[in-house]
Write a structure and sequence with these properties.
Elements lengths: L3 H9 L4 E5 L10 H6 L4 E6 L6 H12 L6 E4 L2 H7 L5 E7 L8 H11 E10 L4 E4 L2 E4 L5 E3 L5 H15 L1 H10 L12 E3 L1 H10 L2 E9 L4 E8 L7
Parallel strand pairs: 1-2, 1-4, 2-3, 4-5
Antiparallel strand pairs: 5-11, 6-7, 8-9, 10-11
Helix pairs in contact: 4-5, 6-7
C-alpha cells in the first residue's frame, strides 16, 4: 500500500520548492528523497538536531547514496527559526511526527504557515473517539483532544494498553507512565487531537483542508493543507 504522505507529495510538488520539518529521526523516514523523485526543484531540511549530530551525517550519507542533489540544512527549533530569522517560503512543506511533541501546537502550525507558500503536508498522532479495552473506556468529544500530561490514572491505563498493542509495551509505558513534561521539551507526547479538532486547528492557523486520510491503523492522520491566500484551485 502506498504511503499516503508520498501520495500527497506527488500531487503538489512537481516543479516546486520543498522543505521538510523534523525528518531526521531514523533517517530512512525522510521525505526529501521522495520529493526529489516526484520533481521538486529545490530541497531543504529543518530539524532540531544540532549541527554535526549523527542524524545529519546519516542523512547526508543517505542523500548521496540516493543521488539526491544538495539539500539546504537548517538546525534548530522550527518555531524559533521562523520567528527569529528571515526564511524564504517554500512552495511545499512536509511535517510528520512533530505536532504531538509540541507543547504549543498552534505555534507550530503558525510557523509552518509562514514557511509554506502553497501547501503543507502534515501527519500527526490523533485521538480516537473512543478507547475501549480491558482497562475501561475513554470517550473523547468530536472537537476535543487528549492533553497527555493531564490524563488520570484510569485514562492512562486505557491509553497505555491501547498503545502497547499498537506501538509496543516499552514505548507505551514511556509515553503514558514515565514521561516528565516540561515546557520546551519536545520529547514527550503532549496533545492528541481528534481528527475534527486537528482540522479545526489547521483552519484557525490559516489553512484550507484539501484532503485528509487516516494512517497507522487510525491512530494518526495525514492532511494535505492549502495556504488559504492561495486557494484550493492553485
Amino acid at each position: 500500500m502506498s504511503d499516503i504522505r508520498d501520495v500527497f507529495i506527488s500531487r503538489v510538488v512537481d516543479g516546486r520548492s520543498f522543505a521538510e520539518v523534523g525528518g531526521l529521526w531514523g533517517t530512512v523516514n525522510e521525505k526529501v528523497s521522495v520529493a526529489h523523485q516526484r520533481g521538486a526543484q529545490t530541497l531543504a531540511m529543518f530539524d532540531t538536531a544540532p549541527e554535526g549530530h549523527m542524524w545529519w551525517q546519516k542523512f547526508e550519507e543517505r542523500r548521496t547514496s540516493l543521488n539526491v542533489p544538495d539539500v539546504r540544512c537548517v538546525s534548530g527549533d522550527i518555531i524559533n527559526v521562523v520567528e527569529t530569522t528571515s526564511q524564504t517560503p517554500h512552495d511545499v512543506v512536509h511535517c510528520s511526527g512533530v505536532l504531538y511533541h509540541m507543547p504549543d501546537p498552534l505555534r507550530l502550525l503558525t510557523a509552518l504557515r509562514k514557511l509554506a507558500r502553497r501547501h503543507v503536508i502534515l501527519t500527526t498522532v490523533v485521538s480516537q473517539a473512543r478507547y475501549e479495552n480491558e482497562e475501561g473506556v475513554v470517550d473523547v468529544p468530536a472537537g476535543g483532544m487528549l492533553f497527555v500530561p493531564g490524563l488520570g490514572a484510569r485514562e492512562r491505563a486505557v491509553l497505555r494498553l491501547h498503545w502497547t498493542r499498537v506501538y509496543g509495551q516499552d514505548a507505551a509505558i514511556a509515553t503514558f507512565e514515565r514521561a516528565i513534561w516540561s515546557v520546551g521539551d519536545f520529547g514527550p507526547w503532549w496533545f492528541m487531537p481528534t481528527v475534527p479538532a486537528l482540522e479545526g486547528m489547521c483552519r484557525a492557523a490559516g489553512f484550507d483542508v484539501l484532503d485528509s486520510a487516516p494512517t497507522w491503523a487510525g491512530n494518526a492522520q495525514t492532511l494535505l493543507l492549502g495556504v488559504r491566500s492561495v486557494g484550493v484551485a492553485d
